[in-house]
Amino acid sequence: MPGVADTDGGVVTSDSDALDGSERRQLDIVRRWGTIGALLLAVGSLGGGATPIYNPLNGVPVLGLLGRMPSVAMGVVWTGIFMIVSAWLVLGRFVRPGRPRLASRSQLDRTLLMWTVPLVFCVPMFSRDVYSYLAQSEIAARGLDPYELGPASALGVDHDLTRGVPNIWRETPAPYGPLFLAFGRVTSMITGDHVLPGVFVHRLLVLVGLGMIVWALPRLAARFGVPPVGALWLGALNPLVLFHIVIGVHNDGLALGLMLVGLELALRGLEPLRWSWVVLGATTIVLGAMVKIPAMAALGFLGVLLARKLGGSIRDLLKSAALMAVIAGVVVTVVCLATGFGFGWVETLNVASTVKSWMSPPTAIGFLGGGTGLLLGLGNHTEAMIGITRVLGQVVSVVIMIMLLWKSFRGRIKAMNGLGAGLGAVLVLGPVLQPWYVLWAMLPLATAVVGPRFRTFAMSVSAVIAIILPPTGSAFDGRAYTVPQAVAGAVITFGVVVLLSKNRIKPLLRRETV
């Protein structure tokens, strides 16, 4: 058939590759299913979200009702979670590599828009970090140093913004880069100490990051031989992105967006070699690191790609490394001085390690070692064991990163595969591990890995993590029964909806043959 149906980051899809009429109807069902889930999340968040201690919705007619029914509200939220995750899993069949007809880029974009718009109006869920952002931003707006003072010390324990910060973070300084705090300072100047406007402006900031991710993912995927729509599905449409970047308002979205855009801009300068593009891309990557430091790892793999372009010798590698180091040094210095925050962020990078979470494998092993010592009557050496296992984990992660850089330099693996695997190793073996950290590995790998085993593994990990994390992002203070009640209600509701819709969704559940 003549004509062009769509263009995906440089890959042109002909009309003959587009979904047929039956498949388009199935795709519409999947879209609507996910959209209903997003609407349920928006409604349920009014009572099941990670609201601040001072909840501005209390006493508001209708809107404040769900706040007095936490089990019902969380049941609504979990029903929405089940619907979005199931819709995303089924959507994956329309972008599966090797399929004769794939969904188009425009179809994926519209699906993302339909699922995202309702989530923009959600109360923050799954984490209370955004309230820390607001408090740290207010500290910066007052001319104080957020790298020296925590919210309680700078604002006072009774300040509305301090009261919204989890207790463990009220005395700790900001662990984020100066560029993010500069954005936050402007936000605080606009919204003051008003919680809802502050959350909304911060959400707009991470939506800019999501826009950068959507722009960069398909273009990077096309460069590394992966179907762009598959990268968008696994990356931007991933429930972890929707839940933790859009709803959770995590600044990881902005850092990831800058990192991926920087890589795409720099790679444009490698074919043919154009230094202006390389420098621009590297600068953008460093700006991402000035939001959150893991983005700096991309600079190493960009340096490897540049060294291979220059000739692939050790001398070329050293030249490339020197250039990346100079760019990093210049950009970091300019950002630190221009924002007025200086280099205090270097001393607060390990602030998160004050929390001892079982989710971090090194920390969990440390707890296990300490507990074993107690059972054997050797005394309580848990703190020492955690310290040792964390150091060992960080050493192993550095070794893994160096090995991946070397393999990428020798052409044994794709640079994006190395970046994703390296970031995964650094974060998994780090002192603290949060569910949204998975995205640092998932997004780069989505642009370079096409194998069915990885796809199945990534789908499973994303779906499980998306479902198991409570929406309130905090403990339940003796009300642990709320969670099983909410989950049970959501499972029953979801099951009933599936039964009522079985005639419509039955075609979606049939096994495809290629």
What does this structure look like?
The protein has 514 residues and is mainly α. The protein has a domain at 357-431. Helix content is 64%, strand content 2%. The protein contains 21 helices and 2 strands. The chain has helices spanning 21-48, 70-91, 105-119, 129-141, 151-155, 160-163, 178-191, 195-223, 228-234, 239-247, 252-268, 275-289, 297-310, 314-339, 361-375, 382-409, 415-428, 438-446, 452-468, 482-500, 502-509, and strands at 4-8, 11-14. A two-stranded antiparallel ribbon has the order 1-2. A hairpin with a 2-residue loop joins strand 1 and strand 2 (11-14). Helix 12 (275-289) crosses helix 14 (314-339). The radius of gyration is 23 Å and the shape is globular. Residues 1-16 have low confidence and may be disordered.
Going across the major beta sheet, what is the strand order? 1-2
By secondary-structure content and strand pairing, the structural class works out as mainly alpha
Number of strands: 2
The outline comes out as globular
Let me know the average pLDDT: 85
Helix content: 55-70%
Order of helices and strands: EEHHHHHHHHHHHHHHHHHHHHH
Strand content: under 5%
Give the termini distance in whole angstroms: 21 Å
**Which stretches are low in confidence, meaning pLDDT under 50 for 5 or more residues running?**
1-16
Largest sheet: 2 strands, antiparallel
Number of helices: 21
Rg from Cα:
23 Å
Protein name: Alpha-1,6-mannosyltransferase
Transmembrane segments: 33-51, 71-91, 195-217, 229-250, 275-308, 320-346, 358-379, 391-409, 421-445, 457-476, 482-501
Organism: Lentzea tibetensis
InterPro entries: MptA/B-like (IPR049829)
